[in-house]
Amino acid sequence: MTHPPQRRLVALDLMRGYYVGVLAAIHLDYVPSLLGLVDGRGALLVSEAEGFFMISGLLVGLLRRRDLVRYGARRMTLNSWKRGLQLYIVAVPLTLLFTFIGRTAVEHGHPEVKVGLDVSSSWPRLIYNTLTFHYTYGWADFLTYYVPMFLLAPLAVWLLSKRLWPLILVLSYVGFWLPSHYDTSYISPFLQWGVYFFIGTAAGYHFNDLRTLRARQSRNRQRVIKVGLVAATLLIYAAGLVLLYRPHLVSSAGMYYHLFENNRLGLLRPLVAPISVAGTYLAIRRYEEPISRTLGRILIPFGRNSLYVYVAQSFFVFLVPFAFGPKNFLFNTLFDAAVIGLIYLGVRTRFLAVLIPRA
């Protein structure tokens, strides 16, 4: 089936812009603050990072299907691998740079460095471990996790073209399940985040098919589906927020931890996240124009330059604790806003953007 040319999906730009725009505040976790009251600091039933990985996969599914149809498997594969190489070239130097800064800080008696710093390996060994994904460090580590996903994306798209989307979903979930039950060593983060990426890839590949299917439904059924997804999204968010501040409400804390927390390896999280992302998308589509005219002035540039924003915030998160920690509600709120404002200024002025590939 052929589809009309795909217009830019502004709702996805808005969502990506929010997800990446609040990462600095989430990682710093300077609370209490205004933003900290509502964003959950990555501890809700669905985190911003999970949503971001899912949207990244969705866009890959959309774009690589177009490449496959127009140019064939070879061009599709090269485009995906080229993107993976770009991220690799950015990720490796960032890990080494953050490691150098961290080691220097430790040598000068600063204990505020991010956990996970390799302080003992020789530099040749450390460089080798970084190049081979055995070591990653800093607050831009997600870039390393993306590289294998882009290498595997052509195979996923090819399988999707053969209508094997159930296989993609099952394999990605099994990969997510493994770190909770077996020692998967350094590949654990790739498995943890890969499930969201490949769920998104499957959704993106079939994005236009799903829209066509939805359009064939009666008006009442469309309304029921939309209202149901949005309501479920609000319930997921509200439940996560309540349990964040009132964890004693859970009668079986061990079961809740196993299903939803477990360092974000809770077994039901990959099932909840697609509902939340879909409901958020539909809600934003409904109010896309007023959001674009207001918050969109910040969120859309963030969403369309998400890699730049992600790398920029990683420096703020890494360096700020050396200067000061969290203070009172007003200070923390103003600081969150200041970081977002400075990153926005960097996006608008394209400060050092030549060093980072476009999102």
Automatic annotation (TrEMBL):
The gene is opgC. The chain crosses the membrane at residues 17-38, 44-64, 85-106, 126-152, 164-180, 186-207, 227-245, 265-284, 305-323, 329-347. It holds the Pfam family OpgC_C. The keyword Protease does not apply. InterPro entries: UCP028704_OpgC. Keywords: Membrane, Transmembrane, Transmembrane helix. It comes from the Bacteria. This is OpgC domain-containing protein.
